[in-house]
Amino acid sequence: MASNLVIVESPAKAKTIKQYLGKSYSVIASMGHVRDLPKSQMGVDIENHFTPKYIAIRGKGDLISKLKKEAKNAKKVYLATDPDREGEAISWHLAQLLNIDAAQNCRITFNEITKSAVQAAVKEPRPIDADLVDAQQARRILDRIVGYKISPLLWKKVKKGLSAGRVQSVTTRLIVDREREIDQFVPEEFWSLDAILTVPRSGESFTATYYGKNGKKQKLSTKENVDQIIAELKSADFVVSGVKTGEKKRYPAPPFTTSTLQQEASRKLNFTVKRTMMAAQQLYEGVAVEGHGTVGLITYMRTDSLRIANDALKDARDFIGVKYGESYLPSSPRIYKTKSNAQDAHEAIRPTYVSLTPAEVKSSLSNDMYKLYKLIWERFIACQMEHAVYDTMNVDISAGSDQWKASGSKLKFKGFMALYVEGRDDGAEEKDKTLPVLCAGDPLKLKQFDSAQHFTQPPPRYTEATLVKTLEEKGIGRPSTYAPTITTITARGYVVREKKQLAPTELGTVVTDIMTKYFSDIVDIEFTANMEKELDAIEDGTVDWENVLKDFYGPFASTLEKAEAEIGKIKIEDEVSDVKCEKCGRMMVYKMGRFGKFLACPGFPECRNAKPIVKETGALCPLCGGKILEKKSQRGKIYFGCEHNPTCEFMSWDAPLPNQTCPQCGGLLLKKKSKKGDRLLCWNKECGYQKEL
Fold first, then answer.
1. Torsional sign, CA 596, 487, 420, 436
2. Residues near 9 by Cβ (< 8 Å), separated by ≥ 6?
3. How far apart are alpha carbons 553 and 146 in whole angstroms?
4. String of DSSP letters for 145-193
5. Could you tell me which residues come within 8 angstroms of residue 397 by beta carbon, excluding any fewer than 6 positions away?
6. Can you tell me the distance from the alpha carbon of 219 to that of 610, in angstroms, rounded to the nearest whole number?
7. How far apart (Å, rounded) are the C-alpha atoms in residues 232 and 213?
8. 159 — pLDDT class (breaks 50, 70, 90)
9. What is the pLDDT of residues 354-390, one digit of tens each?
10. pLDDT above 90 (res 526)
11. Highest mean pLDDT among 308-312, 378-382, 568-572, 657-661
């Protein structure tokens, strides 16, 4: 008897689902998309209703033949690709290839890959959602038109290999605009003035900050301002004029959406957006967990909804009650409100089984998967815990006609903070700051004044976390587009990572200037956000996809024609290095490649010499005495290797220290960085010397 056939995207997902459905089902992976627009041409007939020309993706011929054979012999075919626009489009393409009627009940979806969710989905198949497919198709065609019309223009006028994209161009512009804000920023001087005061009856000291005169806040712009106040107050009496005590509540952060997961993983785990989504995909599709078989550990990871299923809420509350006690459990579940423009088809990102704690699954997960699962699990449990409570104290102090202020807080009840605290972009952590017992009328004794000069700071460069936050706030792109967009603009050499910050290159700035001048709509934040709303409206079935493309293409075609006529040839000079080409004697220049900057001879094609950028550490190799160089792996991670590599095998992820030797054996010292604190260690493992820094 023919079995039922279920088609998913990945082998991992197929393996997980197969164990839930039994022998009467076969499960096969399509390995993502099976059809797409051709790479060699635009593949969109603009004159004929924007009709796309889809072809089978190169290299998938054998897989498609296998899918056709399996579908032909199957009793029933279920298309179980991911539950979003992209997944719906993959199912539609599969239906087209396999001669399945898209209007029949052939499509199944699940927000989590668990036994109950998969078995329930198979019982309730539905037709393919044409509106979802149209929304994905409109996005694909829009992006193809922008990319295939503007990119050749950039190749001709600026440099071969450049590209423009609807979302990538506006994202690059954000980074370029921020860099210009930083360059144009004029710092302003200001001063802070603190008084270290002592309570005579207890001898305790605390710090108060200068506020102003006669109840009005005063800005201290110069040292003269500060010196004048100090001179006036040297003999003044400091007195507590008011004390206000109270309580401050701190509430837990909501469960993760795609955007907030990417931000928090960047802040707390130092993950790139791409790395976060790769680990999340694996956790969603299923992992072999010791004692539990293959399990999908989290719900679908592309979502901007904060909705939580009732069963999951109950499981979380039961766990909190048992593990932490009733005092940590609110009287009713916390319900978080999803933003009005969010797609609410899925839940928030949460663990599928609360009982599978991070500690229980750790041995079954890779390092990245474990760290991300722990983050998701703790955030979800914490979002259903009681709020934290601080005792607060705000003190007003008078000294003549001048006012000073001091504030303190102390954590009284940890609540959710016993498990998890949301990270901050500035890396700061909230700490207790206690004040002595003070009452109105208490005299205080001046111990000393502390003053400091400051300057206003420019806005910081974007990190991946703050860029994703900005893209979400401004409505640019969707959860599924953040990772590929950031990957694209760095791969194209428009943006580089400097530590955790994103900075534009000269190339990125030039291309942005061209796009801003000639294609202002494409790099306009509001225009891009409105286009996103149009795509959402197509998904909702309230707008026709062809009309959206027509409205876009008319003005775009006119702009393209004007740009073609007006843009002259733009030459970007390569930055010259101080390294001489050993083959022809020219000074080598910096080029941007797939894995970042490298050195190349400007005499190309006559001289094809190229090599990585060498950064000396000043330390010598313990194996051969050669120079130890700082290098980059193919994934961009810094490591340290000998200049004589590969003949010398020395390699270290930890930084060697020049001019320092191990006090025990005289060997090479390394500096190992970690969140728990840096430490020195000897390269010679047999020596074993270590020292905390």
1. positive
2. 29, 30, 31, 32, 81, 82, 87, 90
3. 9
4. HHHHHHHHHHHHHT-TT----HHHHHHHHHHHHHHHHHHH----EEEEE
5. 195, 197, 208, 238, 239, 240, 241, 403, 404, 405, 406, 444
6. 56
7. 12
8. confident
9. 999 999 999 999 999 999 999 999 999 999 999 999 9
10. yes
11. 378-382
The span from the CA of 105 to the CA of 355, in Å, is 35
Q: Which amino acid is at 504?
A: P
pLDDT value of residue 634: 61
Q: Which of 377, 380, 343, 336 lies closest to 83, judged by CA?
A: 343
Mean pLDDT of 184-203: 94
Locate 353 and state its tokens: 């089984």
Query: Which residue(s) pair with 370 in the sheet?
Result: none
Which residues touch 597 (CB under 8 Å, ≥6 apart)? 496, 590, 591, 613
Contact 12, 282 (CB under 8 A): yes
Q: Can you list the positions of beta strands (E) in 39-128?
A: 44-45, 51-52, 55-56, 77-79
Q: Coil, strand or helix: which one is 81?
A: coil
What residues contact residue 53 under an 8 Å CB cut-off, 6+ apart? 37, 38, 43, 44, 45
Report the catalytic residues: 300
Q: Say if residue 345's pLDDT is above 70.
A: no
Tell me if residue 79 falls in helix, strand or coil.
Answer: strand
Q: How far apart are CA 28 and CA 15, in angstroms?
A: 9
Query: pLDDT of 530-547, one tens digit each?
Result: 999 999 999 999 999 999
Average confidence (pLDDT) over 431-453:
93
- What is the CA angle 409-415-421, rounded to 5? 80
- Per-residue buried b or exposed e for 290-325, using 16+ beta carbons within 10 Å of the residue's own CB: eeeebbbbbbbbbbbbbbbeeebbebbbebbeeebe
Angstrom distance (rounded) from CA 282 to CA 58: 25
Average of pLDDT values for 1-24? 88
pLDDT over 90, % of the chain? 74
Count of CB atoms situated within 10 Å of the CB of 181: 12
Buried b (16+ CB within 10 A) or exposed e, 205-240: ebebebbeeeeeeeebeeeebbeebeeebeeeebeb
Task: Tell me: pLDDT of 187 over 60.
Answer: yes
Would you say residue 1 has pLDDT above 50? no
Per-residue pLDDT, 322: 96
Q: How many residues make up the chain in this entry?
A: 693
